[in-house]
Each structure stands twice: as structure tokens, then as C-alpha cells.
Amino acid sequence: MKSSPLLLCCLLFLASPFATPATLPPIESPPSKKMKRIEVLHWWTSGSEIQALHSLKQKMETTGHHWQDFAVGGLAGESAKNTLRIRALSGNPPNAAQIKGPEIHLWGNSGFLTPLNDLVQTEDWDTQIPAKIADYLKVKEEYIAVPLNVHRVNLLWANPMLFTLSGAQLPHSLDEFFIAAEKIKKAGFTALALGNEPWQEATLFESIALAVLGTDDFKKAFLLGDETVLTGEKMHLSLTTFRRMKQYTDSKSPGRNWSATTALLIQQKAAMQFMGDWAKGEFIAAQKKENIDFVCLPAPGTQHQFSFNTDSFVFFKTKDKQIRAAQKAMANLILEPEFQKEFNLRKGSIPVRMDLDIHAFDACAKASKQAFLHAAKTDNLLASVSHSMGLGQAGQSALFDVLSRFFNNDEITPEESIRHLRAAVLADKL
Length: 430
Ligand code: BGC
Known about the structure:
Low-confidence stretches: 1-22
CATH topology of the largest domain: D-Maltodextrin-Binding Protein, domain 2
Strand order of the largest sheet: 2-1-3-13-6
Mean pLDDT: 92
Bound molecules: beta-D-glucopyranose
CATH class of the largest domain: Alpha Beta
């Protein structure tokens, strides 16, 4: 398929070039001129994300397939998803793309995607992948996406040295969070590392709302669109608690991306960050040690809840035999035990295959797996509303906008925001 000069120019502008970190082994064997490359669109551009993806690129090369990277970083995937829409709708889709959550069904129903049964054996997948996650990956009982991992979103990262220097204790409830934050601030440190991008603010809000609303009301409000809970007192308290946290952030937070924000903890410049466990990938890439340089704990007040987020790839239909063979190899590789281990150790997540042993993983990952299994049994497993799992594109974008405006503009009252929040969550139903 040919692309127009205008589209090419736009794609070149949107693609974010990045250098492979020096620590990564080189990809073997340069491709022969005749060999086609499988073009993969994704949004992994931080140091740890690049390292995790490198495992896949390298394994693809060793099976004789060549990789063409199309990385569109930024905004936890928003920019990449927009680019994908432009490319697919103009008849020039990539061969594989990172998509997740309810959007997989939209793409699946649109007829663009290759059903995976045509490429690989998926019979065992139902026993390997948790049912709650498998539901996202199937259209009419057929798999159309292959999952890589399970990320936990409701986590708090802490720098133990700054806690010790401030005489603060690690917080297990929101009240304890404010006590610790106050001490850390008084000791002259930034208590809360936050980048003022709407999705990072929403990630923080999600953890607060989980604690304040509890599982049932969180589900009712955000996943079922119950208007009474959406506009009730607990939502009011979630919003005011969210804004109360602003005083603990630093003045340079506007526009700072998530990995630069995690770097503040790595460099002893800030004490805490609310972020999913992809943050652990950054600590590990910086050679930091768990429980010495950083601590991972459930977001205060959400010990029993697990807000889940799964990354996955889909494959666009093609008649090209070489590309189909590469798609097949990629779909097979992703669920292989060795790859699952290598990728997730670097990415900070846990393997999506629950049948795999994770004794080689760190304590944070082990706790995450235990929390996932426990939450699944006790009905505390919740699709993340800040990471494209719980809401559709329209609802999530509107929610980000409402939360960001509320957080950054003290003149907006909680009552006003609640009205907009209700409309945002219900936007998916329009
Ligand atoms: C994705 C992660 C990614 C993070 C930051 C999340 O939505 O699931 O894989 O590392 O965004 O880009």
C-alpha cells in the first residue's frame, strides 16, 4: 500500500525517535535486503519500556524476522492510538499495534484485524490467561489480541532515605499519607512527585477514589455509571482529597512525563509517587534495589483492591506471506514462558500467564501476583479507568479533562466538577 507525502510527513512528525540504551545487547544479524520487516506501532519510549521491548525484538530476529519500530511516545498511549487511527483509516495500517481494553473490540468488530486462530493455536490460552483479561481479547469467542502482562495501577512508590531523614512512616491509609507528606514537606523535600499531565493526574485520582469509594461504589460509579454514586458525598471527598495533595507537589510538575517524575525518587529529590508498576521498570533500569533504594506498596487504603491494566498487541490483516509468518512468530513468542519472564522482569509487571512460576521475580511482583489472585477471588479486581481498561476512549478523555481542570484550577468547585464528571463517565453510553 502506498502512503501519500502528506501522511508520511505527518507520521514522521508524530514518530518519536529514540536511541537504544548502551546497556542493551545489539540485535543480531542485519536483515538481508530482500527480507521484509514487520512494522510494529507502540508507545514504549522510556528507558525501561525500550529495554522490555528489546527482548521481543531480539527474539524475533533470532527466529529470522525483522522488526521495523514505529514508536509514538507520550500520554500513556494517547498519541500512539491517534496515529494508529489515522494510518488504518487511510489504508496504511502497521502490521502489528499495541492496543488495549475495550478498544480491542472496536478494532476487532471493524474487520481490520487478523483473528489469531488463523495464525496460532489458542486452545490453551483460556487456561493460561485469567478470564477477566481474556474477555477483552476475544470477539465472538475468538482471540484477536495477544496479551503481554498484568500491571497493577494502584501502587505507591517511596524513597526510604527521604522518609528516614524526615522522620516519616510509610503510609497505609490516606490519613497516614497526609501525616507523612506534612513531615516530609517540613523537612524540606518534595513529598509527592507528580507530572501534571492529565493521565498522570487521573492515575493519582484513581487510587484516591478506590480508597474513598471502596470497591462496590467505585464499580458502580465508574464502571456502571450509577448517577447516585457518581454525584454523591464520597465522590466529593475523593475530589477534595485529590486537590489537597497538590500542596505536596513541586513547582516544576507541569508537563513533566512519568519517567522523569519517577527519576525524582531515584535521584532522592522526591519521596513518593502514585504510579503503576511500570515505574519499577525505571528503578530497575537505574540499577536501584528494592527495599533499599525504593519501596513499593499498595496505594494507601487500597490494600485489597487491584486496579488492572494489560498491554496487548493486535495484528492487521495482510496478504503478504512473509509478514503473516512474522505476525505468527510474534503472537507465539509473546506467551512463551521465557519471553514472559524476560519481558515482565524489565517492564515491572507480572506475566499474564498465571500458570508460570515467578520465583525469580522481586518481592513487589510476588506481592502483586498474590494481590491479583486474592482480588480475583474476592471480587476486588477492577479495570483501570486511567489506563484504557475501564472506560472507552470518549469517557476516558473526558474524565482526564475534568480531573485535570479541577486539580489545576482552584476556582472550580467540587460541585461543578462532579456535574462534568458525571457527564464524562456517561459519555461512553452516548
Ligand atoms: C501502559 C504501560 C506503560 C505506561 C506508561 C500504561 O498505560 O500500560 O505499558 O508503560 O502506560 O507509558
